[in-house]
Specification:
The chain has eleven helices and 33 strands.
Amino acid sequence: MKDVKSALAGTISVEKDPSSPWKWSVERETPEDGVEIFRFKLTVKREFAPEKFALRWTIPAKDIHCRWTPDAFFGGFLPPEWGSSVETAIAQNMPLMLFGATGDENRFLFAVSEAKKHLRICGGLREEDNLVHCKAEFFLHGDAPMKEYDFSLRFDARKIFYADAVSDAVKWYETFPEYRPAETPEAAFEALYSTWYSYHQKVSASVLEKEYALAAKLGIKSAILDDGWQTDDDRRGYAYCGDWEVAEKKFPDMRKHVEKVHALGMKYLVWFSVPFIGKNSKNYARFKGKYLYDHTAGKLHAAVVDPRFPDVRDFLVETFSRAVLEWDLDGLKLDFINCFCFENGDPAVAENYAGRDIFSLPDAVDLLMTEIMENLRRIKPEILIEFRQTYIGPAIRRSGNIFRAGDCPADFLSNRRRTLDLRLTSGKSAVHSDMLEWHYGDSVENAARQLLNVLFCVPQISVRLAELKDDHLKMLRHYLDFWRAHRDLLLQGNLRPFGMDAQYPVVTVQKNGEFLAAVYAPDQCVRIPSRQKSVYIVNASSSTGIIVSPPKGKYRVEIFDVCGKKQKTQTLYGGLREIGVPLSGMAVWHRLSGKGEQK
């Protein structure tokens, strides 16, 4: 196949084995100015195992200063070509990259429709020519013989707000039938309590029932029982995963425990590490020879099963279904799906794939997760399924409806970045923060910043509520009440995370005449749009001075502290000014008239 001409990226070079029997064809579509879609199709007369191939193209690094990807560990910088690759698969990121200007404007976005099988995408600056070199590599680990294969490549060079470009790419993914997202129940958008950071493996029915009662009084509607329910051992690691039998000393009657939580008005989810079979489990010997890799001698203390074996899939599906049915659970936290991978090559190659009914590991993961979701929805149509970064892409969204930021304990900067990135790629699925924790002796203002940095998603609380100081508890109650009262605005409004190259120092959201801005860094200017009925300015920065620029008019401004206590009310007029807002406090604006000049 010859190189492909693009109006937006010049030449797309196809790198493949010249002796390959595959015949290539391509169709080009331009749905609107600045957008190109290429549909590639590969065919062969008889089934043939596809070999690696790659597509390459370049764009001039003119007015390009940063790169955005859904990967949780790449934070806005423009990398060199040699350090620009991102691995993607069904349980690992998604094949999308955006290159932008420092003014938050898109310059070039590319997205590959293959969001299930292993890909490597690259996009970085080559120092020799000041071009951004992009590449997409396919079939990194081979695949089963096939007669045809097709995929699409989408370019977007519109000079629009970067988040809009990402959102449009996500909507494009959702047009593919195989990427239709799972329905998201309303319960997925309720604040949640998690036991992980607060208790780790030291959990029990008697302790948690008291804690959940306190959470319910705060208006928290769901809880996740994390790791530890399946073992009396509390030394971390996963040596006792795999049998999934309740540790009866901790939970003498799991169903009765769940009934008590339901009586509080709370939904209940339970954690499972999907691929792990621990060295101390009875099932470790049962699945010997059916592992992708074995870390029982290392820190993990567990092996990872190979879902290409049908009995492995049957075991996992039956295990999760039985738990939901027997304990009357409302959902599951399915963890470590990204560990379904190859560490030192594919162990199936030496065994000629004996016993496996699927060649491709991503295909097997897809089938496993699809069967899990289908079976659970037959038991509970509004089942809640939580996944964690980095399994957040279009293919896995078919099997989950809660997407949580990757672990970043007490790191509110990372939590802010990760939750906002997830908001941009998750469509109408629920996005949750990583669990919130803080030192109980810290200032109430610093404790509040953990919550304020994740205002635009569903917060997961993970502190021991009975041990909180009075002011910490007042703060938590105040901001959970505020979040709940304005949840529609915060989660469904027009989201604008500004400063993709600077960890989003200002984030705004707007809907139906309401406007909220969260300020995360000093000396930022919040421009208040005109014709807003209510305006909220949240000060999550380290400064008590907030720069605002409201339209001309007269305003009543109420200033609240971190616990929601009103500090003062003042009259202000439109125009650029600085106002005083307490640390982790808030200013609420009410428009009084359309007249008035700056005073």
